[in-house]
Amino acid sequence: MIIFPNAKINLGLSVTEKRPDGFHNIETVFYPVPLRDILEIVPAKNKSIQFKSTGLKIPGNQENNLVLKACKALQQDFQLPGMNIHLHKVIPMGAGLGGGSSNAAFAIKLVDKIFELNLSEEQMIKYAMPIGADCSFFIKNKAVFASQKGDVFEDIDLDLLGKYILIVKPNLHINTAEAYSGVTPFPKLISIKELIQNDLSDWNEVLKNDFEKSIFLKHPEIGQIKDSLLDLGAVYAAMSGSGSALFGIFDSEPECSELFKNYFCWKSKL
Known about the structure:
The structure is a single chain. The chain has nine helices and twelve strands. By secondary structure, the chain is an alpha+beta fold. The strands form three sheets. Strands 1-4-6-5 form a four-stranded mixed β-sheet. It has a four-stranded antiparallel β-sheet with strand order 2-3-7-8, covered by helices on one side. A four-stranded antiparallel β-sheet has the order 10-11-9-12, with helices on one face. It starts with a strand and ends with a strand.
């Protein structure tokens, strides 16, 4: 059985506080976008879980793959048979687009469907939460205001249907620890939950990503991409998460600039 895990973007991101546990409290809005990987899971006759990937190369040890973690947790709790897993990667990694978390969340949904576990949303979220802060977002997979570690969600009324999005990722990887080291956390006077209610045409002025300032200083190329998206006519442009992907939201279909020819570049209607 096949499923298509999608990416997300961050609409604004405020780092508000460093927590006693070493993590940070943040505020952001997660919004799903139709940039998708392909995930296939087929039951096996034995108990082993076999995993292979194609498409974009996945760095690191395969045993640490989030899809495997999700499937093994469900196999253990429900005494499931083995599985043959094939993941075809399209969503760039290390981009702030949530691809790995999405793969794991959709694996939970797919295993639930294949083996007729009849898990509730709440049960699936319980399996997703230990895997990654934003993993459980992809269970409901709709616009939310996220707070605390980015793992506490509140539904919001936000619809970008009919707009176009252009995502550009340069050939740079931003380490999460590096990104946080360049930010001084502080509480904001106005929450992103309120700022997102502004008209889209005002977002460039009020809806900020706290990571951009220090990352653009270290990697001017990333800041230049944001400027190019605005020059192309983006109503709003920003870096997603801690980068390195940037996105622009447009009223009409944008041209893919020659400036982006050496980068990952993807566009779609929302």
